[in-house]
Amino acid sequence: MSKTVLVCCGTGCLANGSKKVAGAFRQLLAGTDHQVECVVKETGCNGFCENGPLVQILPDDITYYKVQVQDVGEIVEKTILAGAPVERLLYKNDAGQRVRSQQENPFYAPQMKVALRNIGKIEPSSVEDYMAHGGYRALKKALTMTGEEIVRELEASGLRGRGGAGFPTGTKWRSAMELERFPKYVACNGDEGDPGAFMDRSILEGDPHSVLEGMAICALAIRAEEGFLYIRDEYGLAVHNVQEAIAQAEARGILGEHILGSDRRLKLSVVRGGGAFVCGESTALMASVEGRVGEPRAKYIRSVQRGLWDCPTVLNNVETLANVPVILEHGGAEFAKLGTERSKGTKVFALVGKVKRTGLVEVPMGATLRHLIYDIGGGVKGNRPFKAVQTGGPSGGCIPADMLDLPVDFDTLKARGAMMGSGGMIVMDDRSCMVEVARYYIKFLSEESCGKCTPCREGLRHMLAILTDICEGRGQESDLELLEQLCDTLEDASLCALGKSAPNPVRTTLKYFRDEYEAHIKEHRCPAGVCTALTRFVINPDKCVGCGACQRACPAGVISGSGKKVPRVIDNTRCIVCGSCREACRFDAVEAKGRAGL
Amino acid sequence: MQVDMQTITDILHNYPAQQRYSLAMLQDMQRHFNYIPREGMEALAEYLDCPLSSLYAMATFYKALSLKPKGRHIIKLCDGTACHIRGSVNLVGGVERLLGIQAGETSADGQFSLELVNCLGSCALAPVMVVDDTYYGKVTMERLPEILGQYREEGQP
User: Residue A597: pLDDT band by 50, 70, 90 thresholds?
Assistant: First the structure.
């Protein structure tokens, strides 16, 4: 009898000590004369990072959460040797029952994994493991097909770019294939810069070969012999795992001079990003690969025609490429059965922010926001009221509660001023200030603007100044109109998508949360209690039970009062308005008021 | 740190003399010296036969590169959206108070540099802080002194 212990070693679980857990399993299982033969594997990110480290035991199909080194002995004894679960490490579902399988876990059960199919099941550092799970079969099949046949499958699948723009992948490949200029290049965009999104990191770390296979298939179709993976330097583990995967694939003759023994060749290499958000834009990325400053250019001529070193180049996002082997293996028509009319397949979302269960979630396109946030995510943390969900990164928008039943796909959200983008999904509750959120994104974008074109460089700077004024109590009623004008200018006149989509956070918050802007400007009050210049925290004596939690949390030491049942009092003249007391209070006694009267 | 020309030469000769490797060479220098020394950029300009100004443009454009020496320990505090709405701003203030430096600065003793970064891709653990290569998730104000204490040298305050 043999068993497999899968220890999640994604960045999140590593931060919680999963490497030590894996080591402890190896140590306990090595050498001793157990009846059970056991393999310990370090897998990529399971997506449920908040509850890491995760340990899965197969074939028992038991998953443990928050496993620490001291738990390993008990797991070996009870589960591996005796086949019984360790109850306390199982996931507790919404009804309070402990569940064994991931299939019973409300976070995993509704998911459908295509792009993430292998992650958590295989050892990313082992090409054998990838092949044992069907890896490189699609590449083998692609070698028997013509470029035209490969591209047809992609077109039939309806796959659209997962990086945000949603351009049909088959169309892009066809343009490159039909050009008779050589050399041609394939490139992978792993410069995942959107704050709040980490699906590409997870795929590159956890299943690097799936991306390499996707690139190799593309290279066969368009007849390219060299390719690049541009990966953020911040993603150290992803860079390492991809480099290792390339070396293994070359050593086994899968890539390199003879792709699977054929006369086709492909040389892949990793380029580490330099920490610039704009390098996620296609032409800027290519400039960076060439060893220049990563500034975008006007795209009268698409990069598929003139990309790297002015040669035809196909640039695809990580998640897009990870889908390619599945399409080739099972056929485009099969893939197109998933999803909606115009958005096929599945999409990975990074469900984060103030939601109970955070992590990576893959569902068919067209799932509603409510399904994602409430069924999979379990609702808003602390059962607070839902205010908005921010989708699509800095270029996306904020969607209010009355739109929770919208299906998520490329086109629906766009029509509402937001976008699905790369799949970041940040949940906000009543303690998130929408003006401050808009200011945050504009600050981010103004810092990341490369400065090449004036509307983006100067426009964002002025939008930031106006939004900062509003957050700090200097806002004027005419500001809102001025903001709208600036939004128009940026949208019309910016050079690249970074500038063109930059107004989205402001536009959507102005449209759906205008009352919050008005409260800041007219009443000098931040309804969410976030903007410090406009907030005063007051303890409601009727709700305060005198537990003293706020006092212990207060970094400034300005809360007075002692004894049970004696309401505490905040000295507002010395309070730094950090909000620690409000976070600490379990009785909702700390209330945010305006600054008026101070 | 003393700038050692031999090290610079070694870094350069790891790569062919082509412009496409310039970012990688600059990153290697950054990693080794904690900044891009002028000597390094001059040597690179000569190696690639390109104007120094084009390398200067890169060194000032990419956030991963710095012209000033950074501290021995680099603290990256994530201010990505998920961390932001889970209170990273308070942590920034906390670290600033503990170290007596502002974000973007290096402490006078050269021990720590504090950087604000946009998303480290560990949003489920928000707020996140990374010191050198170690990730700390769900960081709270109370944990800050303990985390930073591990990196302080003996006899330091």
Answer: low
- Best mutation target among A16, A48, A289, A293 (most B Cβ atoms within 10 Å) is A293
Asked if the Cβ–Cβ distance from B125 to A48 is below 8 Å, we say: no
pTM of this structure: 0.90
Domains of chain A: 2-104 (3.40.30.10), 127-335 (3.40.50.11540), 346-429 (3.10.20.600), 434-522 (1.20.1440.230), 535-593 (3.30.70.20)
User: What is the distance between the alpha carbons of residues A130 and A243, in angstroms, rounded to a whole number?
Assistant: 16
CATH number (domain holding residue B120): 3.40.30.10
Shared domain for B80 and B141, answered yes or no, is: yes
Residues B79 and B112 in one domain: yes
Residues B86 and B141 in one domain: yes
pLDDT tens string A108-127: 999 999 999 999 899 998 99
DSSP A267-321: EEEEEE--S-GGGGSHHHHHHHHTTS-------SS-TTTS-GGGS-EEEEEHHHH
Q: Which residue of A has its CA nearest to B65?
A: A274
DSSP summary character for residue A567: P
Query: Is residue B94 domain-resident?
Result: yes
* CB nearest to A426's CB, from B65, B85, B120: B85
What distance in Å separates residue B114's CA from the closest CA in chain A? 15
Q: What is the pLDDT of residues A551-575, one digit of tens each?
A: 988 878 899 999 888 999 999 988 8
Confidence bin at A34 (pLDDT 50/70/90) = low
Q: Take residue A239 and report the two structure tokens written for it.
A: 């860079």
How confident is the model at residue B157, as a pLDDT? 45
Q: Please state, in angstroms and rounded to a whole number, the distance separating the CA atoms of residues A116 and A391.
A: 20
Q: Do B107 and B52 fall within a single domain? A: no
> For all residues of chain B together, what is the average pLDDT?
88
Q: Which of B21, B23, B67, B120 to mutate to test the interface with A (most CBs of A within 10 A)?
A: B23
DSSP A81: I
Among partner residues A201, A290, A291, which is closest to B121 by beta-carbon distance?
Answer: A201
Interface A–B counts its CB contacts (< 8 A) at 142
Contact A428 B133 (CB under 8 A): no
Average pLDDT on B95-100 reads 90
Residue B155 in this model has a pLDDT that exceeds 60: no
| Residue B86, domain extent | 73-149
Q: Are residues B80 and B107 in the same domain?
A: yes
Number of structural domains found in chain B: 2
B85: contact with A, CB 8 A cutoff: yes
Question: Mean pLDDT, to the nearest integer, of A371-394?
Answer: 92
Does residue B66 lie within any of the structural domains? no
Q: How far is A219 from chain B (nearest CA, A)?
A: 21
Neighbour-count burial for A351-383, b at 16+ CB within 10 Å, e otherwise: bbbbbbbbbbbbbbbbbbbbbbbbbbbbbbbee
Closest by alpha carbon to B26, among B105, B68, B35, A275?
B35
Contact between A579 and B90 using a beta-carbon 8 Å cutoff: yes
B129, containing H or E segment:
strand B129-131
A430-461 tens-digit pLDDT: 999 999 999 999 999 998 898 899 999 999 99
Which of A361-375, A549-563, B138-152 shows the highest mean pLDDT?
A361-375
- A192 CB neighbours in chain B (<8 A) are 121
B133 and B109 fall within a common domain: yes
Quote the tokens at residue A240: 């390492």
Does residue B157 lie in a domain region?
no
Q: Give the distance, in angstroms, between the CA of residue A272 and the centroid of all CA atoms in the same chain.
A: 19
Is the CB of A197 less than 8 angstroms away from the CB of B121?
yes
Averaged pLDDT of chain A: 92
Residue B97 Cα, gap to closest chain A Cα (Å): 11
Mutate to test the interface with A, among B118, B130, B133, B141 (most CBs of A within 10 A): B118
Contacts of B95 in chain A (CB under 8 A): none
User: Is the per-residue pLDDT at A146 higher than 80?
Assistant: yes
